[in-house]
Structure formats: structure tokens, C-alpha cells
Amino acid sequence: MTKHILLGVTGSISAYKSADLANHLTKKGYAVDVLMSKSSQEFITPLTLQSLTHRKVHTDVMEEPDPSKINHIELTKPADLFLVAPATANIIGKLANGLADNLISTVALALPSDRAKLIAPAMNSNMYEHPIVQKNLRTLKDMGYKVIDPRESLLACGDFGPGALANDENLIEEAINTLEGKEA
Questions:
Q1: pLDDT at position 90, please?
Q2: Which sign, positive or negative, has the C-alpha torsion 53, 57, 108, 156?
Q3: Which terminus of the chain has fewer CB atoms gathered within 10 Å of its CB, N or C?
Q4: DSSP result, the chain
């Protein structure tokens, strides 16, 4: 049976890296359903991710393709892994505090509690190190999320420090190890 991944893509400059992530996981035989925030679509198009996953990309919590089903509930049913990469400070705060005002945060709340959850922060160093973001990440860990730490690097804003999205290899390895029940 094919394992199923829900990949949440949020509005970070590193959203473009979600294309490689989705492509690699699809090529490894996983079903990847992409959930995109509105701001992520400013960096990468749904068509790009649809072309790589060969699956519909979901962008709107109010879109209900089948009137007999609630889309944000149906998306969670086959999911083996919920992965948010990149995860902005905004989505981290929403997930940590139970806010559900977009598709990714609504799906996260509808996700059965026994499903694996990974989150890969990507943002400016000052934002990443801000006490509220660190508190929200601890909250998510307490709720069963595994955090894939960002890299220290030269960031898009020109600053150097922690906040760059983890390397593709790390993201793929963490996702596969989580799906296959291995410790990374």
C-alpha cells in the first residue's frame, strides 16, 4: 500500500524548494498531496507542484471539489505523514495555538492525533530566534511534531544565521525515516 504525505507549503522564499521535495518523494513511490498557503503561491505556482506530483494541489479551505465530502477532512484520512516545509513563523504560531484560518492550519486540526507530523522552519534568524517562535516550536514538539531544524546560512535577506530551510537530503531522509518507522 502506498504511503501518503500531506505537504504543506507556506510563504517563505524557500517555497521553491518544495518542488524538489515533492518530486523526490513522488519518485520514491509516495503519494504526495500538496497544500499551499496563499502567500506560498507568490513564490511557486500550484501547477509546478501538480506537474511533479501528478496530483491536484489544494489551495483554498473553502474549495469543495466533491459536494458530498468535506475536503479538509477527506485530505487527512489517507495521510501517513503531515509535513510542513517550509514553515513560516505565521504557520508555526497558528499550529501551536489551534488557529484554523487557512487550508494548512485547518487540515492540521482535522488530522487524527496518531499521524506523524514534521515541521521545517524557514525564516530570518531574528524571527526564528524570537522567544515566541521558540515557544511555539516547543509547543508543537509537545503536541507530537518533530522539528527539522533550519540550517545556518546566508539568508535571502542578506543576514547570516539560523533560519535557512534544511537541505533537501535532510528533509527527504526525515520524511522517509518517519514513514518507515526508523529513527533519523
A1: 98
A2: positive
A3: N
A4: ---EEEEEE-SSGGGGHHHHHHHHHHHTT-EEEEEE-TGGGGTS-HHHHHHHHTSPPB--TT--SSTTS-HHHHTTTT-SEEEEEEE-HHHHHHHHHT---SHHHHHHHHS-TTSEEEEEE-S-HHHHHSHHHHHHHHHHHHTTEEE-PPEEEE-TTS-EEEEEPPPHHHHHHHHHHHHTT---
Which pLDDT score, from 0 to 100, does residue 108 have? 98
157 is catalytic: yes
Look up the pTM and report it. 0.95
- Structure confidence at residue 183 (pLDDT): 59
* pLDDT at residue 48, as a whole number: 98
Q: Among the options 157, 159, 160, 184, which is catalytic? A: 157
The Cβ of residue 38 has, within 10 Å, a number of other Cβ atoms equal to 12
